Task: structure prediction
Amino acid sequence: MKHAPPSFVYRNALLAVLILALAFTMATGGTSHILSPKDREQIFEKVWRDVDEHYYDPEFGGVKWQEVHQRYLPLVQAAKDDKDFYSIVDRMTAELHDAHTRFSSPEQWENRKKHQGVSIGFRAGYVEDKVVVLDVFPDSNAAHAGIQPGMTVTALDGQPIAERLAEATPRVLPSSTERVTKLRILSTVLAGSLETPFAASLEGANGSSFDVKFARQTLSTEPRVTAARLSSGFGYIRFDEFHPSLVKDFKAAVGNLRATQGLILDLRRNRGGVGATLEAMATLFFDSKTLFERRMSRKQVTASERDGHRTEETQVFVGRNGAQLYSGPVVILVSEYSASATEVFSAGMQDSGRAKIVGSSSCGCVLGITHDRVMKGGGVLEISEVLWFSPKDRKLEGEGVIPDRVAVPTIASLREKRDLALEAGEKMLQELAAARQAASSR
Result:
C-alpha cells in the first residue's frame, strides 16, 4: 500500500502463522534453488537495512539490531537452500518481538494473497488450560472424521500434547503479547505439509479417547460478510477481515438491519486488514466528524521522545452529517484472535462511546505496514512503521482492547454448542436498549 493516511495496512498480525489459523498452516513448498549464495546474502543485507532505517521505533524495543545482524549473517551464509534461508530471515525479523514485522517466502506470500493454506480442518485454542477444538470447518476431513467442538487434543502422533508444546516453545520467539506467542507455539505444533497426515488423540464429552488420522487439505478463507436477525430480534454481522471487497456487502447488511434495536458485530476471528476499509465501515455508525484513531510514525516517535511528551501525531476522523446508517446500540465481540485493524476499529468504537466490547482481551498486535517490500526471488518483507493509539490515548500494541464485559467459552459450552460471548452480547444489548428507552421516556 502507498504511504497515505487512508491506505495503511493494519496487516493481520496473525495471518502468516496463526489465524490461517491454528487450522491453517502456510504451505512453503518444496526445496528450491533459485537464489545463489550471493543473492541470499544481498537479500539479507537489504532486509536488515530496511528494518534499520524504517522500523517505527528507533530504539527497536531495546533489541540490539546491530548484534542481530552479526548473529544471523553466518546462518544465512550456511543456509542449505532457499527454504532454509527464508526461515532464517523470518526468524531474524521475529527478534523484534513484533507480530507485524516479518518475512514471507514466495510460496507463503502467494497463499496469503489467495487466502488459502494447508488445513487440518479445525481451529484449536486454549480453553481451561487445555488445547480444545473451537470449531470445525464444514465438509472438511476433520468433520468427516468425527471431530467436534469441545473435544480436547491430548496427543499428536502418539506424543502427549504438553510435551510437543514444551519442545516447540524454545523455537518460537516472544511476539507482541504473551497471548499471540502462545497461539504461535500451538500453530507450530499443529503445522504440517500437505503430504503429512494429521494424527491425533482427542478426548470427548464422556472422557473416552478418540483417535483420528486423516489427510490435510488445501482450503480457502475468502473474506465474506454473514448477516442475520437473531431470535432475540437483534441484528448480527460477522466478517473475518477488513478487506476492501467487503465494504459494499457490509453497508448492505447494516442497512438491512437498521431497524433492529441493537446490533452485534462478531469480530472474534477477524484477522485485520486495510485501514481505508475499517474507516469506511466505521463511518456508517456516526452522524458527525469523530476522532477515531491516533497514529505515530518513526519521525514522530523520535520527536516526542526528544521533547519528553507526545506533541506530534496524526489524527484520523470518521463520520459526517448524513453518513450514519445505524444509530442503535452496538456490541462488538472480540477475542485473542481479534488482531490489528480489528483492534483499531473496536478501540475507536469503544472510546467514542459508540459500542460496548464483549469477549476476551484482543491480540494486542497493532502496528502498521505502509507497503510490502518485494525482494529478489519473490520473498516479501513487511515492516511495522506506524504505532497506534486509541482516541483516548490508549496504546494498543502490546495491550489490546479490553472488553467491557468478559465472556469466554468453556469446554462444556462448546460441547453443548452454546456461544457464551454471543449470549453475553445479547444481554448487553438488552441492557443498553432498556437504558435508552428509559432515557427517552424522561
